[in-house]
Amino acid sequence: MILQRKRGLQTVLLLLQSILIAWSLAVCLIVSSVFVSLSWEQVGHYPLYAMVMMAGLFIESIRRDQLGKQSSPFGNNFLSQHQVSLNQTFYAAGALFFYLVLTRDSYISRISLGLWLPFLYLTLLWSNRYLWEILAHSLFRGARKGRILLIGTPPKAQRLQNWLRSKKIYGMDTLGILSDDPSGTEAPYSFPFLGKIADAEKVIEEREITQVILLQLPEALEEHRKLMSVLQRHGVRLLILNNLEEKLNHPVIYVEDDGYHFISLRREPLENPFNRIAKRALDFVISLPVVLLVLPPAALAVWIIQRLYSPGPLFFKQIRAGLQNQRFIIWKFRTMHVDNPDTTRQVTANDPRIYPGGRFLRRFSIDELPQFYNVLKGDMSVTGPRPHLIEHNEQFARQIASYPIRSVVKPGITGLAQVRGFRGEARTPDDISLRLESDIAYLENWRLTLDLAIIVRTVWQMMLPPKTAY
Asked: How far is the CA of 298 from the CAs of 15, 309, 314, 316, 469, in angstroms?
């Protein structure tokens, strides 16, 4: 989770710095035009120069990734930020000079170039010193705010205090530590002592913990199983500080960040803010035309069907569980009779609560169209685990301990489970397990092409609905 956030922030910053290259070029062209006359033929070559320098910027970022934290611009170290900015300017300028020599290009103005390079350095220095922090505050707030609970001995926690402090910028706050070490209440450690390890579930509930870090590999298997059950039951992420090197006297690396080695339960591509931005852009591109162009005529058609079969409100609104189990109001076209006595019971085949025209709307998923409004609001995504009733979530979580983990991504109008045919009434634990398996596969293996594939398969199923669509 933390590593994905860091990588994503680096990617977003790099893309914005590429835009700043073009912006700085435009500024320098305007200034240089005061001193020298530039023909349109000359100006026409400058966008290409900017693209070449962007390529140099990306090459520098690849080289820097191999060096690790020593050259990272994230933090308050001005010398490090200056060095990164200088290297970026050097690589960008080097790429440009290489291109000019290779193509024997003579259109570039020496005055423009003389203004551009120092101005570019200052622009990159500003972005490395301030822009990344602005981005982090924007990307990791609200529901994305993380609350960390440490479990283990206080001395091991002390080793992590500088690392944990540096992760606050990614929205990760350390609330305290659970430990069976009696010295935990006496020594002047940096983290509040919140109780014994046996108090884990109580603390997780009271403090709304989203991330647990075990400070060493578990030794008591039974205690570890109990803790794992608690974490799965509450949908809490887990990181384990890897201390195998101490036991085996041999390096063991799974997940690495700033020199610390961790073991994580699963990959989470959507913790990468760049991936979330791409997913949100896809949501917006799809949902806006649907809300503006498809929803109004569909609402009129549904209203006419309702007048014929079951007069009453056009829409049906209900509270569902969203990202991190935050509640939101979901919108649907009403497909049940107004005098429905039990709105929380799962829909079954030939359900008498559904009016005849409502069966048609549900079978072809027309009743789900208003949820594109939820997508525009940001409560949902076009693709993701389906949002269930609060009562159903609690029921399913009692049957399958790891069920709440699906809440770490936004719910969707459609999802991998739905296009695999797992829709309709969940009668048995196996039905729930199969859907959960698909939801976890989605959150672990997300990519934009997967979202597109799900959308295409959903459109196909809307035209040829499966038997479970009712």
From this structure: 39, 17, 11, 15, 19
